[in-house]
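User: quick one
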Amino acid sequence: MKLAVASGKGGTGKSMVAANLAFTLAWTDPVTLVDCDVEEPNLHLFFPAPATITDVTVPVPVVDETICDHCGRCGEFCQFGAITVLCDRVLFFPELCHSCGGCTYVCPKGAIHEHPRRIGTIATSLPRSNLKLITGMLDTGNPHAVPVIRAAKELAAADPIVICDTAPGTSCPVVEALDGCDACILVTESTPFGLHDLRLAVDVADRLGIPAGIIINRSDGKDAQTLNFCAGHDLDVLMTIPFDRDIAAIQGRGDLLCQHRPEWQKAFIALFTKCSALAGVHR
Amino acid sequence: MIRLAVISGKGGTEKTMITAALAHLQAKSLVLADCDVDAANLELVLCPTLIRMEPFMGMKAAVIDPALCVQCGECTEHCRFAAVDFDKNGYHVNPLRCEGCAVCAYVCPATAISMQPRQTGEIRYSATERGPLVHARLVPGAGNSGLLVHAVKKLAQEENPDRDLFLIDGPPGTGCPLISTISGVDHVLIVTEPSVSGLHDLKRVVAVSRQFRPRIAVAINRFDLDTALAETITTWCRAGNIPVIGMIPFDAAVIASVRNGVPVTADGSSPAAQAIQILASNLERELENDTDTRN
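Assistant: Done. Structure below.
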């Protein structure tokens, strides 16, 4: 089963939920945790362990200036403005390139081939028995998160239980992380910001046809609007985590709630059972 | 016009709350932009009056005409984004995956594929008590958030050249929308929090910001939840010549003000509001130091 943890709004506690769920399940089952928040991955802070690092590369064009006659077709074709052809040379802007390969197809001289360009890394580690952590990390200054997310997920493709922690927001990095998941947990907080962004996240899950359930985090008891929204959209509230300075401190220093307060493990096992039901998987 | 972006790296450090409070306290004439286009929240505390709205057209998307398609599969084979699906209804393009590269249209031997404009969001131009606000809404799941950020910034600046300060509420992260937000700004204010995640993400967003050479300042929100980590962050910033210009305590008044849809500084007596007043006056000095060497 592949499960995603998403949120719309940032800082609602996605990583906390993903880390504690994986920690708890790993007592009994092999679990793979994939950090798909490649712009700001944090799960490795909760599971420090030696990791194997591999590069993520994308193909980018290299022009053979000895063959190129500066006809300009590649620059005209590129929809992303990554190539500008001058009368005597070709300028290439790698950060704009989407690696579609179009320039290599349209070049009448066959003067363009592709070379790998590094845009990020994947770190794989085994921080606990039964637990594999795969962290995608975008190189700083690189705008293209999606290929790094894809590469991280591919490494977990054959694993039985996969939990993907996603970036906040609702745009392409979130879509890439959710794609192919059997269910998703949307973590929110009971504020107007939390609810506004929860609506958007529910919309994304709907468009992708992925069943979703809700976790209300840092609840101060004033959850009526969030609960009404969930009831109106037929969304189950899978778990409510109260606001508690002690929980915030555990999380803040990079520790696990379920390790320091083991009574929470039961709640995370129940959460997984509910997610399995959402995904239509019987356990 | 001085351009200032409030960013964070890590999400949920309350940069929107702080942006709204800074807007409330600013003496300068302002134009505001919400560049967190896929989860825009500034409007929830600034109560804008919508003046006009325009569609945002993202990259074109491929569309296959089933009447012309000869089902050869060249499009599927050449698409690097796995955006062309094949099922009982034939070949069709998944718009959520299509990046608009036009390779499929180029390789199609039957010229059955055309690139069609698509609306991936809308841009809103509004009035607030503190000045014009340009905000946007990305269609949930759509790409091109960096392009939309660019369009939001461009509109805000073009229509308000005489304003003193362009104040931007930025997105979390370090990728495409963040890069689009900070390119061309004079100052960034990074709002962080005293957690290992906050510090880790701060380091990354500083590394990205430095590539664009704005002046960088940091504010630590909820610093009293872990004063030791707040000190670690301050020490790290000092070592990198980054001024820490605000220390805001955890305060229930913050959530209460967000729920009431007003800036937390509207009632200036709470500890958070007082700390943000100090942040605002320190920021004022930072903005005036504009001619100093950039860090």
